[in-house]
């Protein structure tokens, strides 16, 4: 046995080998040591190899999926080695024959299909990147849904595209592995290298044509060699990992960079589109707007937010659907109730195609198509184009529905081997086997009655024991009568009884004993037949799944718009970014959940007289929120959603860039300022005239004059060279002078109010420039000791005085301002004296006052306040 293990393991040196032994998957040697530590399970030993104990651990087969998920998340790959025959079959070859085993699947991050291993509301992409003669391409597939896409792109765009797709695994050629390691690592994907043969374009084309059963790929589009190579590498990898059982893949769809809004990795991170900065989904834009009812709808929403369209006709069509669902509130409610009952058709279909499904996947297809028919009947004929196309794709599944409706019970078991999922009355032989299995005694009793009637012997019995099986028993007095009947064959004579059998009884005995096993065999055969029938209609089922997702998304966005008071944006080819009463969707929702103050809405107007707003104001006043909310409003509009505003006019944005907030990247030796400069450089080098850029506090990580110079030059470059729309927040008030020199720059500020030395944030954005930063007041709010705050005020006054009177020399400033240690400690606060009003309030007992008396007390207090 161990020789067989070592032979199989040698074929998969980079994977943990799950070696099936009965009801367990066993791991040995280094695999066992690594798995025991990763899974926190006991490490034992089994036998010896080269005079050394063999480490071993194991996991039960029935709960293996949970262990697989843990290992995959910790970066392992797992080769699943199954028994290809039963021990009884092995013994026929010899008593010491080892059961045949082979790897049936290589489990990797990008090839998961099991429901328990995947997030239902997120895609799990497997991607491949290749460069052929200076032309590069990226292909990606979700084998759990069948989606297959490809696009040409320059190598510099790989990072942003990986950030958009968030693939679990990326396939590259061995020659590119080292060069791409850092880029792939930043995306969080697992990197897999294949040999050059996997990327050969001629071989790739043959694999793709064979997969889709076509003579040429021309029917799917005009693909360059790099695109064919990338797609072919994915198919090759799937053949390796799935051991020839290829998933149901849809024909490849060619994407183009020019059709979607370009958003780089830093911007996605800063805007928290699908993931919050903390790393989870909570706190992201996606979490705030997701009201979808189905897993397919949720995945579609994430795709739309990750890839907002820049094709005007597509955006308008999506907005029309949401508009219709918003206006039809009752219909929208009924549709959402029906969608709540829709299972995940895509993933059920994929599991069936990979032969990893079960009866519940058959039921999921049935239930999903039933709801599709119901929803199609609910929708009127007068629909926007997207919803009309969806409605048409929901019908035409009568054949599959009739078959599954007749064949399946309402709630099937998980596994086909458990049986019991085929409905009674569907198959005559199965019904007979079930009757024999479940009602064997009744069948035998019926035969006994027939024998009694035929022989006239009322005391005749049909009995059973482990030696004879079923037999007919009569007393010795009736033996002669039984011998005279040729049907009865003598089996045994005892002191008082004589026992017989019949051909009919022997056959019935065999059938009863085998009925349970035969029933399972029939059900398995029927399962395969039903599965084949569904797979023959896979394209139509997948089409219905896409239609349901489209309807789910439209009604979910409509529900969001009604509930949150969002409006339909005007989207066109112009340069406008005009937002009235704009709000940050995530911050507004968070404030409401916390029961805090309402969100203060603000206006933004770019593209008419000014392409750039220079925003000043103190920290904590809401500058970063204002920047982000306008970027998110543009993103939502082009994703096909209504937006959080009272009015919005969005000229199509080609690229979205955000440089808001930064932190050290210690692993790559970058300081906060270095990270800031790298991100700013990427914006200035890439932004075109249709881009939207939001920049916050450029240059703050270095010396004052260095930072001011960089911010100044950056603003000029955005205005003169990039020519884009931008919101530029800064603490450098000197930059406000540029509004008078650069024609398309306007000043704006976040309003605050100062009262008795305290700063009150109004969170209102208005035209104009801030006159100061209020940094000392913010420091006091943060809880700095009073002595520090007081000292800061002294230093600030001296600096401002020096600036008014001319440049202050540092040494003179130090001489004029003694060291902090010399400053006297602040006097302790004197205890506050109780006022006469407070004393009177303490003597009042509200429960003892009548309404008239309470009103009089209030008048008295008011009079004392005025007198004081």
What does it look like?
- It is a single chain.
- The strands form 5 sheets. This protein has a 7-stranded mixed β-sheet, sandwiched between helices.
- The model has no long low-confidence stretch (mean pLDDT 89).
- The protein has 31 helices and 27 strands.
- The chain is elongated.
- By secondary structure, the chain is an alpha/beta fold.
- The protein has 7 domains: 2-107, DNA repair protein MutS, domain I (MutS, DNA mismatch repair protein, domain I, 3-Layer(aba) Sandwich), CATH 3.40.1170; 119-255, Nucleotidyltransferase, domain 5; 290-397 and 537-560, MutS, DNA mismatch repair protein, Chain A, domain 3, CATH 1.10.1420.10; 428-512, MutS, DNA mismatch repair protein, Chain A, domain 3 (Orthogonal Bundle), CATH 1.10.1420; 570-773, Rossmann fold (3-Layer(aba) Sandwich); 784-822; 836-867.
- The longest helix is centred in the middle third of the chain and has 34 residues, at 503-536.
- This is DNA mismatch repair protein MutS.
Helix-strand layout with pairing:
Layout lengths: L1 H8 L6 E6 L2 E5 H11 L4 E6 L2 E9 L3 H10 L4 E6 L3 H5 L9 E7 L18 E7 L2 E8 L4 E6 L5 H8 L3 E5 L3 H11 L2 E5 L6 H12 L12 H17 L11 E2 L7 E2 L1 H7 L13 H5 L5 H12 L5 H16 L1 H11 L5 H9 L5 H20 L6 H9 L4 H10 L20 H11 L1 H16 L5 E5 L3 E7 L3 H6 L4 E5 L3 E5 L1 H34 L1 H27 L5 E3 L4 E6 L2 H9 L8 E5 L5 E5 L6 H17 L7 E5 L3 E5 L12 H15 L5 E5 L7 H19 L2 E5 L15 E11 L2 E10 L7 H8 L3 H20 L4 H7 L19 H8 L7 H17 L1
């Amino acid at each position: 046995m161990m020789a067989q293990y070592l032979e199989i393991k040698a074929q998969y040196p980079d994977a943990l080998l799950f070696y099936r032994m009965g009801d367990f998957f066993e791991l040995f040697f280094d695999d066992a040591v690594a798995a025991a530590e990763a899974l926190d399970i006991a490490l034992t030993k089994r036998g010896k190899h080269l005079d050394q104990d063999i480490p071993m651990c194991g996991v039960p087969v029935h709960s293996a999926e949970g262990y697989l998920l843990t290992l995959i998340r910790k970066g392992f790959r797992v080769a699943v080695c199954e028994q290809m025959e039963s021990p009884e079959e092995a013994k026929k070859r010899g008593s010491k024959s080892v059961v045949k085993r082979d790897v049936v699947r290589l489990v990797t991050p990008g090839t998961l299909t099991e429901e328990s291993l995947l997030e239902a509301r997120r895609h799990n992409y497997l991607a491949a990147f290749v460069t052929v003669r200076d032309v590069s391409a990226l292909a990606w597939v979700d084998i759990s849904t069948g989606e297959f896409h490809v696009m040409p792109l320059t190598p510099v765009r790989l990072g942003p595209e990986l950030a958009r797709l968030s693939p679990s695994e990326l396939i590259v050629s061995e020659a590119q592995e080292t060069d791409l390691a850092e880029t792939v690592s930043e995306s969080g994907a697992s990197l897999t290298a294949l040999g050059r043969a996997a990327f050969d374009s001629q071989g790739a084309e043959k694999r793709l044509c064979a997969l889709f059963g076509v003579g040429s790929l021309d029917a799917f589009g005009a693909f360059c060699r790099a695109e064919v190579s990338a797609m072919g590498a994915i198919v090759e990898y799937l053949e390796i990992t799935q051991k020839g059982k290829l998933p149901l893949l849809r024909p490849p769809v060619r994407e183009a960079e020019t059709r979607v809004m370009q958003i780089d990795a830093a911007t996605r991170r800063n805007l928290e589109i699908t993931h919050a900065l903390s790393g989870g989904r909570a706190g992201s834009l996606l979490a705030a707007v997701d009201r979808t009812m189905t897993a397919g709808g949720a995945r579609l929403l994430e795709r739309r937010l990750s890839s907002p369209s820049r094709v005007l006709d597509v955006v308008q069509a999506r907005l029309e659907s949401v508009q219709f669902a918003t206006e039809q509130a009752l219909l929208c409610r009924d549709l959402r109730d029906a969608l709540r009952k829709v299972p995940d058709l895509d993933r059920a279909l994929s599991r069936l195609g990979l032969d990893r499904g079960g009866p519940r996947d058959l039921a999921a297809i049935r239930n999903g198509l039933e709801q599709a028919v119901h929803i199609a009947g609910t929708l009127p004929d007068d629909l926007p184009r997207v919803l009309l196309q969806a409605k048409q794709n929901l019908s035409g599944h009568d054949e599959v529905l009739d078959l599954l409706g007749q064949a399946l019970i309402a709630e099937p078991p998980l596994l086909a081997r458990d049986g019991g999922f085929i409905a009674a009355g569907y198959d005559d032989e199965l019904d007979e086997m079930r009757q024999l299995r479940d009602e064997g005694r009744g069948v035998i009793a019926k035969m006994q009655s027939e024998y009694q009637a035929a022989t006239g012997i009322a005391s005749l019995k049909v009995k059973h024991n482990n030696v004879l099986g079923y037999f007919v028993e009569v007393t010795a007095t009736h033996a002669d009568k039984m011998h005279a009947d040729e049907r009865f064959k003598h089996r045994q004579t005892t002191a008082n009884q004589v026992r017989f059998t019949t051909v009919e009884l022997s056959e019935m005995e065999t059938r009863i004993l085998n009925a349970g096993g035969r029933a399972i065999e029939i059900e398995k055969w029927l399962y395969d037949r039903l599965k084949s029938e569904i797979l023959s209609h896979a394209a139509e089922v997948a089409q219905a799944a896409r239609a349901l997702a489209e309807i789910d998304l439209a009604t979910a966005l409509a529900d969001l718009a009604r509930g949150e008071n969002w409006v339909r944006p005007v989207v066109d080819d112009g340069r406008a970014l005009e937002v009235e009463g704009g709000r940050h969707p995530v911050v507004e929702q968070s404030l409401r959940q916390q029961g805090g103050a309402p969100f203060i809405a603000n206006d933004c107007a770019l593209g008419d007289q000014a392409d750039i707003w220079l925003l000043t104001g103190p920290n904590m006043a809401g500058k970063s929120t204002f920047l982000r909310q306008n970027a998110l409003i543009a993103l939502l509009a082009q994703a096909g959603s209504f937006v959080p505003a009272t009015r919005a006019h969005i000229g199509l944005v080609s690229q979205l860039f955000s440089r808001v907030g930064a932190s050290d990247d210690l692993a790559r030796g970058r300081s906060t300022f270095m990270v800031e400069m790298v991100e700013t450089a990427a914006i200035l080098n890439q932004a075109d005239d249709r881009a939207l850029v939001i920049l916050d506090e450029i240059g703050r990580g270095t010396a004052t004059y260095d930072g001011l110079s960089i911010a100044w030059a950056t603003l000029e470059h955005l205005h003169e060279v990039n020519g884009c729309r931008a919101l530029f927040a800064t603490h450098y008030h000197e930059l406000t002078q540029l509004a008078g020199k650069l024609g398309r720059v306007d000043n704006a500020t976040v309003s605050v109010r100062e009262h008795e030395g305290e700063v009150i944030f109004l969170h209102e954005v208005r035209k104009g420039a801030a006159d100061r930063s209020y940094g000392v007041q913010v420091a006091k709010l943060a809880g700095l000791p009073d002595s520090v705050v007081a000292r800061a005020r002294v230093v600030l006054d001296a600096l401002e005085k020096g600036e008014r009177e001319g440049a202050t020399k540092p040494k003179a400033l130090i001489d004029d301002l003694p060291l902090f240690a010399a400053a006297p400690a602040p006097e302790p606060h004197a205890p506050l004296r109780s006022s006469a009003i407070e004393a009177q309030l303490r003597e009042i007992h509200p429960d003892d006052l009548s309404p008239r008396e309470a009103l009089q007390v209030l008048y008295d207090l008011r009079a004392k306040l005025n007198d004081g």
